Write a sequence for this structure.
């Protein structure tokens, strides 16, 4: 991981540590489970997108950090719930027992609920002297809730679950990917743009970048699930196929999936053309493709 | 139920119908499960508290209705998740199969997540020409997230779950009740107060009212669980005891629990003394005690 990403990641980890109650805080089992999953070694891609997007508009981390933390809290909750026995039934994530295996199912459900709720508390908390105006913060909360909700991420997870074992089609895989993973990646870029005070043209470019990057991200993930070693992925390799999941390679084959990922990344980079100082975002797109991020 | 409560309830139902996607909207299984639980015949006590609290400050339903809907969405999500096999494992609620029995566990988890997320979307949505300023709305979102989160409702549910089968003590039952049920009832009154532009003294009185009412509500619920018929409750009677739940009667006995409920309701009413036009709130407190609401 290149230096600027490592730097962002460390900043995000410090900020998350600040907003989270310390281990031992009551109710201690709940707090412990929340911390366990939040500090399980995530790459912090979504918060990095928030910070990078704000940064190319000249906004510092102070303006964008609460949104950066909020997207990571929501990402973490979604992993906890997706891993549950009633959904993907995964015992391991990033090489560690999943939350419901390390604690119990009830606690894992509540820890997820609490992380989701905390995301909105962080974005609305005024006590910390938030530099972004209430007008903009209300817009950010609305954008986050929409991206994470029934016609965004949760909708994608539902269709993913409902379509297991069905014959994979292009509309199906595109719906799942643009919703389940794409919506929150796109929203991360958008939140940074709002925190940074983007004008209409900048907003348009950044939205398009986020959209293309979001889809590319999941295509690369699908490809890796088929080809990478179990060790590199931290989960069983080929597990999507074994489970009858709708994936890009299942619809298009590996070669065409790779070409499509490349094309999406190129389109993401092109969308940045009208935006000054967007080199970091362009680099991030490239790292997503090479999966060094 | 007296006429003004019926009227509020009908208003809330209409508003919820407006914000919810209609049956058949994609992803249809998710939307259907959300609607199933939201329109399962709830008494809408929390939204009625929001509207009544705003109303005694002279604010109309247009100012307070999005907060009223938000608290009901969060209440509904909490019921869906609490009923899950990994938590209370209930098959019926209000005489109908619980969400995970009518659909499936994965869908029920996601429907709960989606209702929780939608609550914040509703409160932050600017498109509807919201009459409350962004400054106040950010405060409302913060209050709601805090009340619903790890040191509010979710914390109470965690301790409730962790303490099943333990010897019931007063600190334990008070923690569970003030958090699990109390926090959201208190918050409902607070949101109405914020929407209605309460001054400091009004805010203080309404907060105290909400606190006392919130605790009384759960004490009455515990008493009814021990004494009422299964039919009246829509769930097995005495089910708390059978499950080793920490309840008020388990700590204080039935008679003292009844006296404490009466005292809490009196204190709730007394807290309204400095607030003009608070007759509706006083009536609601009385109805909670008599459980005609």
């Amino acid at each position: 991981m290149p230096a600027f990403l490592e730097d962002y990641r460390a900043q995000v980890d410090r900020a998350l540590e600040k907003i989270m109650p310390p281990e031992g805080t009551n109710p201690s089992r709940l707090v412990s489970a929340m911390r366990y999953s939040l500090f399980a070694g995530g790459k912090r891609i979504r918060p990095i997108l928030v910070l990078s997007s704000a940064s190319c508009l000249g906004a510092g981390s102070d303006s964008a950090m609460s949104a950066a933390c909020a997207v990571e809290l929501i990402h973490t909750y979604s992993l906890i719930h997706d891993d549950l026995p009633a959904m993907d039934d995964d015992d391991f994530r990033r090489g560690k027992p999943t939350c419901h295996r390390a604690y119990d199912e009830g606690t894992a459900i509540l820890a997820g609920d609490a992380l989701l709720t905390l995301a909105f508390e962080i974005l609305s908390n005024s006590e910390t002297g938030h530099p972004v105006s209430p007008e903009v913060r209300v817009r950010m909360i609305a954008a986050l809730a929409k991206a994470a909700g029934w016609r965004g991420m949760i909708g994608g997870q539902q269709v993913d679950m409902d379509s297991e074992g069905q014959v994979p089609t292009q509309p199906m895989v595109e719906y799942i990917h643009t919703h389940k993973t794409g919506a929150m990646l796109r929203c991360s870029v958008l939140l940074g743009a709002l925190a940074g005070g983007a004008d209409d043209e900048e907003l348009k470019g950044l939205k398009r970048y986020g959209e293309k990057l979001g889809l590319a991200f999941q295509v690369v993930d699908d490809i890796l699930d088929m080809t990478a070693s179990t060790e590199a992925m931290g989960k069983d390799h080929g597990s999507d196929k074994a489970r009858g999941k709708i994936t890009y390679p299942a619809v298009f084959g590996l070669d065409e999936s790779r070409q499509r990922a490349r094309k999406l990344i190129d389109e993401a980079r092109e969308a940045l053309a009208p935006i000054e100082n967007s080199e970091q975002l362009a680099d991030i797109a490239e790292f997503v493709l090479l999966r060094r991020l």
